[in-house]
C-alpha cells in the first residue's frame, strides 16, 4: 500500500491509507430491521454545519458583532440537505439526524454573562409556528425530510416546552398568564427545578397551569401582520375541539409542535430541558405525537413502516444509566420513562468510557436487558452544552469512536466528532467552545489534528457506523465476552424470527488472529471482516483473519 501512515490507537498501531480508502464509500448497506435501541444518531447545530444558501445569512437586522462563536454563521437546512444528498451521512452509517430547533428565534441580542449572543443555537423561541429564515423555509424543511427519507434516514426535531427566548428590546415578554420570570431555579428539589426560570431573563412557560389563557398579544399582533391570524385560530379551535384540552399554555405548545409531524412526517423528538417541566407534560405530548404520526402515515401509506413507532428521547440533565428508570430530584424520584419517553440521554457514558471496553459493554448490556428492558439510553461523548467532554482536544479519536459506536444502547455522534473538530476556540467563553463551524476545510485538505489525519478518523467512524447500522445486535443485542487476549466479544439479537449475530475483536497487533466463534457461527460458515474486507470460513469453531488493522468486525457473508 502507498502513502500509509501509522497512528497510535490505545496500545496498538493503527495502519491506514487514506487515498485508497476514499473509494470505500458505503460498505454494502444491509436490509435489516431498524430499531431505535441500535440507532446511530448524528447531532448537529443547524447554523454550524453547512451553509447551503448564503442569501439567508442575515435576517431581522441581526448585524451587530457578537462574541466569539456567539453569532449566526450561515449554516442552514439547505446545507444539511446538500450533505444528505451527497451521501455523507450514509457513509457514516447514520440512521437518524437530530437537528437543533428551527423555530423562529428572538430577533435581538443578549449578553448572558459570556458575551453578546444571538439565538443561532435555536433554543430561544419567539414563535413555535414559524421557521426562522436564518435556518430556512418550510419548503426547505420539507426537502430535507424527503431527502433523508430517500436515504433511509430519520429526522429528530428538538422540542422546547420549558421556556421562550429571552426578553430584548425587540422581543417582549409573553405576559404573566403564560410565563414566570422569577424565581431562578436553585435545584434543591423538585419544585426548585421546575417552578422557576433556568437562568435570569429566560421566561419559564407555566406548564403546570391548567386553566385557559388567551394568546399572547405579541403573537396575535405578529400573526395579523403576517396575514395568518384567522388560519391559526381556526386550527387552534379545531385542536381544542377535538381534544377537549383546556386552552392552557402546555396544550398550545403541544399543538404547535405536533403540527410538524402532520406536515413533514418528522420521526422523533428530542425533549429539551425535560426535567424542568412537570413530567406529565411529556405523556400529553406523547399521546398527541402518536396521533399525529399515525395520521401522517395514513396520509402517506408505505413511506414509513407501519410498525415503526414515533421516537422520544429526553434530556433529563444528569440522568445516569446506573439509576435504571429513576431520576432523583433529592426530595422526589421520577420515572420519566413512564411518561412516554423511549430513551434518556445518558450523562454517565463519558465517565464509563474511561474504563476498559469490557467494563462498559457488560455493564450496559446487563442494565439494558434487565432494568431498562423495553426502553433505552442515548450515549454520547461530546455535545453542544457539555463543557467537560470526553476528548476536548481530540487526542483519543479512535478510542472514542470505538467505545461509543460499539457500546450497547443508541449512539449520538456530535458533528465534527468524526473529523476531530476541536471543542475549544481561543477567545470563546463557556459552551461557545463546543459550537465552532464544522471543520470541512480539515477534511478537504486531509489535514492533521494532533498528529492524526482527519481522513483516518473519518474512515474509522464510517466503518464502525456502517457495521452498527447493518447489525441491530451491536446496540440492542446481548453482550458476551469471548476472550481477553485479544479482547473479543459477541452480540446476539433476536426478534420476530430475525436473528443477528456478530463477533468483534479489538486491540489487535497487525498479525493474523484466530477467533473462537463456536456457538455463534456454524461450522463452515463464510464470514467477512467488515473492517478489512477479508473473508474466512469457520473451521473447528475458529475463524482466522489476516488483517493489518487493530479491529475485526465479523459478520456472516450474505
In short:
This protein has 558 residues and is an alpha/beta fold. It has a domain at 5-168 and 256-476: Glycosidases (TIM Barrel). The chain has 16 helices and 28 strands.
List its salient traits.
558 residues, alpha/beta, TIM Barrel, 8-stranded parallel beta barrel, 6-stranded antiparallel β-sheet, 28 strands, 21% strand, globular, disordered N terminus
Question: How is this structure best described in words?
Answer:
The chain is of the alpha/beta class. The protein has a domain at 5-168 and 256-476: TIM Barrel. 27% of the residues lie in helices and 21% in strands. The chain has 16 helices and 28 strands. The strands form 9 sheets. Strands 3-4-9-12-13-16-17-18 form an 8-stranded parallel β-barrel. Helix 9 (249-264) packs parallel to helix 10 (280-299) and helix 13 runs parallel beside helix 15. The longest helix is centred in the middle third of the chain and has 20 residues, at 280-299. The chain is globular, with a radius of gyration of 24 Å.
Topology:
Blueprint: E1 5-9, E2 12-16, H1 18-21, E3 40-44, H2 46-49, H3 77-86, H4 88-91, E4 96-99, E5 103-105, E6 110-111, E7 116-117, E8 125-131, H5 138-150, E9 154-159, E10 179-180, H6 191-194, E11 204-205, H7 217-225, H8 229-243, H9 249-264, E12 268-271, H10 280-299, E13 311-314, E14 327-328, E15 333-334, E16 343-346, H11 349-352, H12 357-368, E17 376-380, H13 397-406, E18 410-414, H14 440-444, E19 448-449, E20 452-453, H15 454-470, H16 472-476, E21 478-484, E22 487-495, E23 498-506, E24 513-516, E25 526-529, E26 535-537, E27 542-545, E28 551-556
Parallel strand pairs: 3-4, 3-18, 4-9, 9-12, 12-13, 13-16, 16-17, 17-18
Antiparallel strand pairs: 1-2, 5-8, 6-7, 10-11, 14-15, 19-20, 21-22, 22-23, 23-28, 24-27, 25-26, 25-28
Amino acid at each position: 500500500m502507498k502513502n500509509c501512515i501509522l497512528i497510535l490507537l490505545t496500545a496498538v498501531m493503527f495502519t491506514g491509507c487514506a487515498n485508497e480508502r476514499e473509494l470505500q464509500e458505503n460498505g454494502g448497506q444491509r436490509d435489516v430491521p431498524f430499531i431505535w435501541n441500535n440507532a446511530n444518531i448524528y447531532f448537529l447545530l443547524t447554523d454550524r454545519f453547512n451553509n447551503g444558501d448564503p442569501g439567508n445569512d442575515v435576517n431581522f437586522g441581526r448585524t451587530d458583532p457578537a462574541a466569539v462563536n456567539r453569532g449566526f454563521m450561515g449554516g442552514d437546512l439547505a446545507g444539511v440537505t446538500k450533505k444528505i444528498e451527497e451521501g455523507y451521512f450514509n457513509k457514516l452509517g447514520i440512521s437518524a439526524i437530530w437537528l437543533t430547533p428551527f423555530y423562529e428565534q428572538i430577533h435581538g441580542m443578549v449578553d448572558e454573562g459570556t458575551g453578546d449572543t444571538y439565538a443561532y443555537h435555536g433554543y430561544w423561541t419567539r414563535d413555535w409556528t414559524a421557521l426562522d429564515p436564518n435556518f430556512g423555509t418550510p419548503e426547505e424543511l420539507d426537502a430535507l425530510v424527503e431527502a433523508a427519507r430517500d436515504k433511509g434516514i430519520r429526522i429528530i426535531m428538538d422540542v422546547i416546552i420549558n421556556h421562550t427566548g429571552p426578553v430584548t428590546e425587540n422581543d417582549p415578554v409573553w405576559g404573566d398568564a403564560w410565563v414566570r420570570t422569577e424565581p431562578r431555579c436553585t435545584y434543591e428539589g423538585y419544585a426548585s427545578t421546575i417552578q422557576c426560570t433556568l437562568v435570569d431573563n429566560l421566561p419559564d412557560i407555566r406548564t403546570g397551569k391548567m386553566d385557559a389563557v388567551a394568546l399572547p398579544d405579541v403573537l396575535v399582533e405578529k400573526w395579523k401582520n403576517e396575514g395568518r391570524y384567522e388560519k391559526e385560530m381556526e386550527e387552534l379551535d379545531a385542536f381544542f375541539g377535538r381534544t377537549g384540552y383546556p386552552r392552557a399554555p402546555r396544550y398550545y405548545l403541544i399543538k404547535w409542535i405536533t403540527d410538524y409531524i402532520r406536515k413533514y412526517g418528522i420521526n422523533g423528538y428530542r425533549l429539551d430541558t425535560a426535567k424542568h417541566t412537570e413530567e406529565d407534560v411529556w405523556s400529553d405530548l406523547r399521546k398527541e405525537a402518536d396521533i399525529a404520526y399515525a395520521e401522517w402515515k395514513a396520509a402517506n401509506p408505505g413511506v414509513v413502516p407501519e410498525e415503526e413507532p414515533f421516537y422520544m428521547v429526553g434530556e433529563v440533565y444528569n440522568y445516569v444509566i446506573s439509576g435504571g428508570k429513576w431520576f432523583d430530584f433529592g426530595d422526589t424520584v421520577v420515572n420519566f420513562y413512564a411518561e412516554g419517553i423511549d430513551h434518556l440521554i445518558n450523562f454517565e457514558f463519558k465517565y464509563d468510557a474511561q474504563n476498559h471496553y469490557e467494563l462498559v459493554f457488560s455493564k450496559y448490556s446487563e442494565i439494558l436487558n434487565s432494568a431498562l428492558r423495553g426502553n433505552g439510553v442515548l450515549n454520547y461523548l461530546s455535545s453542544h452544552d457539555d463543557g467537560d467532554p470526553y476528548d476536548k482536544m481530540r487526542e483519543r479519536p479512535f478510542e472514542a469512536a470505538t467505545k461509543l459506536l460499539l457500546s450497547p444502547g443508541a449512539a449520538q455522534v456530535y458533528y465534527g466528532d468524526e473529523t476531530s473538530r476541536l471543542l475549544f476556540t481561543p477567545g470563546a467563553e463557556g459552551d461557545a467552545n463546543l459550537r465552532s463551524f464544522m471543520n470541512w476545510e480539515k477534511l478537504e485538505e486531509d489535514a492533521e489534528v494532533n498528529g492524526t489525519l482527519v481522513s483516518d478518523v473519518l474512515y474509522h467512524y464510517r466503518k464502525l457506523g456502517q457495521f452498527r447500522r447493518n447489525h441491530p445486535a451491536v446496540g440492542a443485542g446481548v453482550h458476551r465476552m469471548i476472550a481477553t487476549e485479544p479482547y473479543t466479544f459477541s452480540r446476539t439479537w433476536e426478534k420476530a424470527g430475525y436473528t443477528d449475530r456478530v463477533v468483534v475483536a479489538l486491540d489487535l497487533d497487525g498479525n493474523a488472529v484466530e477467533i473462537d466463534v463456536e456457538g455463534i457461527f456454524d461450522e463452515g460458515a463464510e464470514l467477512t471482516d467488515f473492517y478489512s474486507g477479508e473473508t474466512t470460513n469457520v473451521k473447528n469453531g475458529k475463524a482466522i483473519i489476516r488483517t493489518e488493522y487493530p479491529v475485526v468486525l465479523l459478520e456472516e457473508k450474505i
